[in-house]
Amino acid sequence: MDPRYLRLADLLVNYSMDLKRNETVLIDSTDIPDEFTIAMIRAARAAGAHPLVETRHSRVSREILRGTNLEHASKVRDVEMFRMRKVDAYAAIRGSQNANESSDVPGELTSLYSRTLRPVLNYRVNKTRWVVLRWPTPSMAQGAGMSTEAFETLFFEVCTMDYRRMAKAMVPLERRMKRADQVRIEGPGTQLTFSIKGIGAKMCGGDRNIPDGEVFSCPVKDSVNGHIHFNAPTLYAGTRFENIRLTFREGKIVDATGSNQKKLNEILDTDPGARYVGEFALGFNPYILNPMCDILFDEKIAGSFHFTPGQAYEGIADNGNRSAVHWDMVMIQRPECGGGSIWFDDELIRKDGRFIPKDLKPLNPENLKG
Predict the structure, then answer these.
(1) Whole-angstrom Cα distance, residue 253 to residue 46?
(2) Which pLDDT value is given to residue 43?
(3) Burial class of residue 198, CB neighbours in 10 A (0-12, 13-18, 19+)
(4) Which segments of the chain are extended strands (E)?
(5) What is the number of helices (H) and of strands (E) in the chain?
(6) Superfamily assignment of 3-159 in CATH?
(7) How far apart are CA 303 and CA 180, in angstroms?
(8) 107-127 vs 261-268: helix crossing angle, rounded to 10
(9) If you write DSSP's letter for every residue of 35-103 in order, what string do you get?
(10) Which end of the chain has fewer CB atoms surrounding its CB within 10 Å, N or C?
């Protein structure tokens, strides 16, 4: 057993989910080594918990999607919901040998399936202690432009960092976002204003996603105005998109351009809520510097923020927007990526990816790493 597996399983079970004796955890694995699933089972049992295990394969999941319909998706939803209601915690460990495995599934089937199963996701997010983790695969290494071995080394370094230390440094940013009203963002191709007044904020220090390193809020639904040009590629429903540019008027996306523009707009037309924003977050994981088309990593890039068409987190920094879509789109503001600035109520919060106020400087990379 790779000792790195043991350290990671211990972090997920005892820190991220904080499993207790006699609790039940669903371990939901896709395309990962059996050895790590076993490490998770053993860690859960060592904590006195009861593990349930689901093993999935992305090629099988593609075939399920290709022939789905409302009746089929509804049956899947009912079965998944029954099981989800029986657990206290949920861990999803998701690998993929091919990040584009579902790219040829018709968009209308993907949307139908997502809409129908959304209640299961909502229940999991709101009613369980959950954590979601990607698994390092050659496909991910390729997306990061790295060798498989180098990427695995980075992966375990990022995923087992000192999240308790990071969480302590996040507290002032969460406090500032909770009391802020107007947000202004400027950068290449970007002039954006919106309000987060009364929405609240949530810091993420390894107790939901691994890797982690963000604090998120959400715009007041109709407050977003301006335009934004994302400089990180993004993968959604098995399709890669680049150079996405969105124009907002009173909260709604009124124009969307970029690579694969037809499919981009098909996704944004999934339902009315897909053209409104459900999340705004600042990312600052010091070990993640470059996009790799995996959102659990890309949304935590040091010096980045993400802006998310679709579903808001119900009951947590919630503007009331509901959608089957939740699409985190990332803009990096470090100097080598074009720079940029973020203001809260006319106070400069971050310039070229670095936090400016004294109480936020512990979130700059050299302090989180040191």
Answers:
(1) 49
(2) 98
(3) exposed
(4) 24-30, 50-56, 89-94, 129-134, 182-187, 190-195, 202-204, 209-210, 214-217, 225-229, 234-236, 239-241, 245-249, 252-257, 277-283, 304-309, 329-332, 341-344, 347-351, 354-355
(5) 11, 20
(6) Thermophilic metalloprotease (M29) (3.40.1830.10)
(7) 20
(8) 50
(9) HHHHHHHHHHHHTT-EEEEEEE-HHHHHHHHHT--HHHHHHHHHHHHHHHTT-SEEEEEE--S-TTTTT
(10) C
For the chain, give every domain's residue range: 3-159, 163-369
Structure tokens at 168: 């302590």
280 beta partners: 217, 307
Q: What is the DSSP pairing of strand 209-210 with strand 129-134? A: parallel
The answer to whether residues 4 and 11 touch, using CB atoms and an 8 Å cutoff, is: no
Average pLDDT over the chain reads 94
On the question of pLDDT at 146 being above 90, the answer is no
At 246, is the secondary structure helix, strand, or coil?
strand
Question: Would you give the distance in Å from CA 331 to the centre of its chain?
Answer: 14
What is Dmax (Cα atoms) for the chain?
Answer: 56
